[in-house]
Amino acid sequence: MICRNLKINGRRTSLRMEQDMWDALNHVAALQGVAPAALVSEVDLQRGEASTTGALRVYLLRYYREALCRVMEMEEVRDEFPRLAPAPDYVTVQ
Questions:
Q1: What is this structure's pTM?
Q2: What tens digit of pLDDT does each residue of 1-22 get?
Q3: How far are the Cα atoms of 6, 16, 18, 49, 52 from residue 3, in angstroms, in the given order?
Q4: Helix (H, G, I), strand (E, B), or coil: what is residue 18?
Q5: Which residues contact 26 (CB under 8 A, 6 or more apart)?
Q6: How far apart are the two ends of the chain, measured CA to CA in Å?
């Protein structure tokens, strides 16, 4: 777990996430043309009762899941996708 301090919505806070989650945050923020802290601020405003970190994880999961659904709708990609192997550190949750 990596802890980073961010200023979101006028307050300083720290978030603890795995490096893969930080990478995902940076990637999605870059795709949207915003700073990572700005993206976290938007998620924080909409989080309801959830923690900021929890809401951010759900946001990133939904973002990638929706992107995958869009990609799978493309016939040429769908035909290739089943041949891709899972990531080497893939863990099955039971």
A1: 0.76
A2: 999 999 999 999 999 999 999 9
A3: 10, 4, 9, 22, 13
A4: coil
A5: 36
A6: 22
